[in-house]
Amino acid sequence: MPKRRWIITGLVAGLLGLGIGATVVAAPSIAAIACPQCYGLSSVGDGVYAERDDETYRTIIAAAQRRIGDFYGERTSDARVLICATAECYRGIGGGGEKGQAFGRWALRLSPDGANETIATHELAHIELHKRLGSAFDAVPDWFDEGLAVLISDDVRYLGPETGGDRCLVPYEEAAPITDADWATAGPPGDDHKYLLAACVVSRWVTDHGGPPGVLTLITDLRDGKRFSEVQ
Length: 232
Description:
Blueprint: H1 3-16, H2 20-34, E1 42-45, E2 48-50, H3 55-72, E3 80-83, H4 87-92, E4 100-103, E5 107-110, H5 117-133, H6 142-153, H7 172-175, H8 180-185, H9 193-208, H10 212-223, H11 228-231
Parallel strand pairs: 2-3, 3-5
Antiparallel strand pairs: 1-2, 4-5
């Protein structure tokens, strides 16, 4: 990596709070966040950088941001978005087999398969939640973070229709209780079953807690130092 990219990587890694080991692994991603142009990405406006100049990308991100604002009442995050039109580009900025990936509270990257409103909303939902939690971002279990992102993005792969009442696509008894250990081990690599479990439990939790206001209360409680197990 050129010296300029290493300098950029170090600066951004500090902002994102990544450790040295994680920084080495994520170096292309972090450097690309700081200098999209260094990786062949050009600004298409509104903090979106893409491999090709396509108005569709900005439209997708704007729609995803509206979804975030609609859920919370307002949007507090302002993420930089990197979008690749080819697999080669996505590998070049450190991407793997995922459709998209959020980085801390500041940025996300989208693969060619992930450049759509659902995936963009999912990743932006992670960023918004972490921004609102601040230093308490790690107080939320991974399964809740993922399930909430599925809910906010209204991902029909893992949720039933909103008009149908209970949105679980698996029996609730199968999904709950769920732990981070369950989340990490549910299904073989590439199996999306764990998203069905998390989406089921979180959609039920949000309904039982009065909708989005319940999530806002949870965030406030966690920022005040309470543990997730104490405020469910």
